[in-house]
Structures are given as C-alpha cells and as structure tokens.
Records
---
Amino acid sequence: MTGHADSPREALERLSTLLGSEMNVSPRDAVRMIVSSVDLLVQIQIVDEIRRVTSIARLGKKLQDGEPVLTTLWRYDEASTKELPAWKLVEETEKLS
C-alpha cells in the first residue's frame, strides 16, 4: 500500500483515520487491524532531486498501554552527499498516542 505522510508515525495515524471514516471501524479495532497486518513502514522523500528511502520503521505486534509501538530502524543521513548517500542505524522506539 502507498500512503502520503510526513513520517511513519503520521502514516499510521492517517491509516487509522481512513479505516474509521471509510470502513466504519472503531479506532481501537483500526489499531488492532493495522498492528496485525503491517510489519514495516518505509518512507520515501525527494532529497537533492532524487527519491530516497529516508526512514524504515518496524511496527510492534504488541500494544503498549493500548497503543502501537513504532521503532525507527534506519534513517537517511542528511549529512551524506548526493553521490554517496548514507543511512544511520537508530533503533528509536516511540509509543504512538
């Protein structure tokens, strides 16, 4: 699936809203459906006029306090050059609430 958002976190929020509004799914059930069916979120942005993968995040399969947990695994290194792109391993975890 392709969605448009400024971050993996925002993509999850938009998907949850879409399920609620278009398919009449409760927010709680939308979160459960997303967590059970989505493993990774890959964000692509245009950097230096080239499409680049700028973030790869893993969606946890267990809820924490009723909320999904998103772990950013890799992030595009903005200090890298157009000729030699680089990514950083970050593994930052955040609870979506």
---
Amino acid sequence: MKKIFLLSFLFITISINAQSFVQTGEFSVERTKVSNYMLDSGSDQERTLQLNITFPKAFNNKPEVMLSVTKFDGEKGINTRFSVKVLSVHKAGFSMEIKTWGGSKIHMIGGMWMAIGE
C-alpha cells in the first residue's frame, strides 16, 4: 500500500512540475488574402503555399504541433487533392505547407493548429 501511495505521489509531483500548456489558433488562405496564391491555377504540376505562424506566447522548449483542415472550397467536378503539413517548429512559432497537384483547384482552405509544450 505504501508503494502505491509513493508511486502516486511521485507521478502527481512530476506531472505538476512539467507544466505543459496548450496554444491554439486558426489559419485560412485564399487568393484575396495571399499575393502568391497558386492553389487554384488548375495546373497538373505541384503547387505549394507556405505559411509562417507565430505563437501568441513563445514556449520554453520546442512544442509539438498538430494541424486540422476545417474549411475547404474546391472546384466542382474536379478531383480534390491536397496535403497540409508542418515543415518546421521552433519555440516562437512554426511553418506549414499546403500542397495540391493533378489539376485540383483550391479556392480557399483553412483550419486550426494546436501546439503543446512547456
């Protein structure tokens, strides 16, 4: 019983000292907001757009970043192909890439990001 209590106490102490925190935000791109927007050209070539996101408050260490797409406007009658990924992460922010290919036309794409770190 003492071992269980001691292990529980240790786990709680370590958890409290780690003090992870979460920051969230949104991204949204379309032709009217971005000068070099090429995602709606319909070219068979790969087309990419990079975004740099700055965290509201810098982390002490490099956080983990997750992305999700929550809104999308594509061309009717054309296959939709896209990928959204994190390229690099640092304490103050991250860069991400939106890519399409194969004739897909993306008129607008947006979503949310979440960063978890110390």
---
Amino acid sequence: MKIYLIALLLFAALFLQPILFSAPLRAQSSFDLVQFSDSTKYGWRDLSDRLDFRADFTERQNLLQIYNIESQSVHENMLKSAIFPGWGQFSTGHFTKGQILLGSNLVLFGTSLYFYDRALGYHRSYEKATQVDEIEKFYKKAQEPFQYSVIFLGFATLFWAYNVYDVIGSTQEYNIALWDRIMRENYRRPIRLTPQGVEIEF
C-alpha cells in the first residue's frame, strides 16, 4: 500500500511540475522593462522634469508639515468652548464672536441663577410659614421666579450649545486662512496643493 502511495505522489509531482514552474516564467517573460522605465507616462520629458517634480513634491510635504504643526484641532476647540464659552473662538482669533458668546452665556446663566435664588428664598419662607395664608403667599411667590429661572436656563443652554457648534466653523476658517498664509509666504508655483484639493493660479 505504501509503495502505491509513493508512486502516486511521484507521478503527481512529475505531472504538476511543468504547470507550477512555467506560469511564473511566462509572467516574467511578459514583463515590459522599457514601458516600466518610461518616464514620459508621468509627464516627465527628461531627467530635469523628474528632478523638478521631486523638488516640488518635497516642498509640498514640508509645507504640509508646517500646516499640521500650526493648525488647530476641531475637537480640542470644541472641548474648550464646552468648558468655557467663547474659549475656542478666542483660540482661532474670532475675538468679537467669542466675546458675544461669552457675554450672552454669562448674562443668561446669571439671570437664571438670580431668579433661582429668589425662588429659593421664597421657598425657605414657605417652609418656615405656619399660617395658611402665609404658606399660600410664599408658595405662589416662589413659582414665578422659578419659572423664569428655568426659561433663562433653557436659553443659556441653547447659547452654550450654539457656542460649541459655532467653533467648528471658526476652526475650519482659521485652518483655511492658515494654509493660504503658508502658501502665500512659502510657495510661488502656479499649481498649488491645498487641504481641499489642487488649485491652479492664473
């Protein structure tokens, strides 16, 4: 039985050898070295064009490195504005917008806190009251400032959420302006590579 198995394996090896080893040889023989080394398909007419392309590519890489170092992260600025309204806008140079958002949030939160403090004072008087008419009076007085407190807190929350959302656009504007400044100061070629794509300057 073992002799038959060995003979069968030898026969299979002899039969499959031409198939296994001829395919790579055929593929290798069909490789066109001239076409592979032809630089004109990349638009390079000669070695000088190839060197110019390499220098241009290296320069663009260097500019992108500068951009990556100086650009600001959208997520970091969102976190800043979430912690302190207007902080992200200040980081991107939008000082007026940051002041408006900061002032609005402070006024709204402060007004909400003021009415809540008044409602809390009436509520303390309500808890200490012993007469029925005083209990009703302080209970009613506590309702109105508490409702105002909730309303202003709602507006403050909306302004806070808008402040976090707005910093996304502010950061993108900052990064676009940064890239334009880097290109203007360091790159003088008519074809320019930007984070949004390729721009051709006429």
